[in-house]
Amino acid sequence: MKREKKEQAISGELIDELLKQGRQPEDIHGLLKQFTKAVLERALQGELTEHLGYAKHDRAGQNSGNSRNGSTRKTLQGDFGELELETPRDRNGEFEPEIIKKHQTRWTGFDDKILSMYARGMTTREIQGHLEEMYQVEVSPSLISEVTDGIMEQARAWQNRPLEGFYGVVFLDALYVKMRHEGRVENRAVYVALGITLEGKKDVLGLWTSAAEGAKFWLSVLTELRNRGVRDIYLVCVDGLKGFPQAIESIYPKAQVQLCIVHMVRASLNYVTWQDRKQVVAALKPVYRAATADEAERQLSQFEAQWPKYPAIARLWREHWERVIPFFAFPEEVRKVVYTTNAVESLHMSLRKIIKTRGSFPSEEAALKLLYLALSKVAAKWETVQHWKQMLNYLDMVCGDRIKEAGVRQ
Question: What does the pLDDT average to over 72-99?
Fold first, then answer.
């Protein structure tokens, strides 16, 4: 019933009277702007009355120690465009309005629109043009930069936040982004660590940048993760970067390292002619789709016999065999989740769609700012990893003591 009364607060007669000014879209927009101004100024006057304890011209205000002291004009940016407001003052300067706070220049929702457009990869100039076209708001590039720069404080807090003590799986990979560094534009690696918690939730643990992907830099990333609270990891899925497994095991000696099967297949295709690629890919599938590690090894021998013209492929797989087979111990339903870096590569794909509109970034901070905002949008759509209950039961069985040692309650 309360809701119904609120909806009837503006009478039809009043609306008809207001609409005499015009019924075209631009007339309605102007009317809403005037109405917003009137309501806000009335609300501000009401707040001042409540603050002083007496109404305007009320005798109760005589010798009260404080009184009204005119008004200050301020410009407010909002969905309605640019609005000139008269904000009331008190003589003692104690009045702190709530609906439009002191020094506030934009109304709720306006900054969110700027950030949303920025997170979709729109440039400052594109955002400026869109706001002017859709809301008849003239916004300076400096204002847009001010809004988006404010997100860096959140990004730094996110990058330094404490992490879970134990992760079932962590994927480590890098994507390359063009950014200006020391006066020149270059491709720089953005390192991404994506973890899966014991609840089956995907969680990006952080973003880091460097000139190129390398095991030495990954070592510093892993050290930071440990300093932020990650005591143990069951499985780390990586590409075939030289020295990577050793870097992981130096920080997390109990962790198993799983080489990404997709990267193994791609590395195998380096030895294959274009005409044979599809057939070789199909012939390798029984190796990593086998039911057990022993069966996978038999399938690899069959592949070797079937393709004698490519002996380097079987040699490559055997050379890394101990890093290829850890996933065979897992429940079949979750193997595909853990034997490839598809989870993090899918994330990369989403990020690339957003950053592809930029030729390059003026700085490392500008790149990280957009990546953080884009990441927030992508992560909001993530759901619990399918069949994770089976994986959790497996982890409890094989390393329940390690989970407890990491200080995680199950």
Answer: 79
First to last CA, the chain: 46
Q: List all residues 6 or more positions away from 90 whose beta carbon is below 8 Å from its beta carbon.
A: 48, 51, 52, 66, 67, 68, 69
Residue 139: how many other CB atoms lie within 10 Å: 21
Tally of domains in the chain: 2
239 and 366 share one domain: yes
Domain hosting 308: range is 164-405
Q: Are residues 146 and 171 in the same domain?
A: no
Q: How far apart are CA 216 and CA 247, in angstroms?
A: 7
Q: Which two tokens stand for residue 90?
A: 């008190």
231-266: string of b/e by CB count within 10 Å (b at 16+)?
Answer: bbbbbbbbbebeebbebbeebbeebbbbbbbebbbe
Cα→Cα distances 139→26, 33, 150, Å: 20, 17, 16
The DSSP H or E segment spanning 8 is: none
Least Cα distance to 128 among 105, 147, 149 occurs for 147
Whether the per-residue pLDDT at 20 is higher than 90: the answer is: no
Provide the H-helix boundaries in 136-199.
141-149, 151-159
Rounded Cα gap, residues 246 and 243, in angstroms: 5
pLDDT digits (tens, 9 = 90+) for 294-312: 999 999 999 999 999 999 9
Strand ranges in 142-201 using DSSP code E only, listed in sequence order:
166-181, 184-196
In a domain, 8, yes or no: no
Bridge-based pairing of strands 166-181 and 232-238 is parallel
How far apart are the C-alpha atoms of 12 and 18, rounded to whole Å? 10
Position with higher pLDDT, 170 vs 153:
170
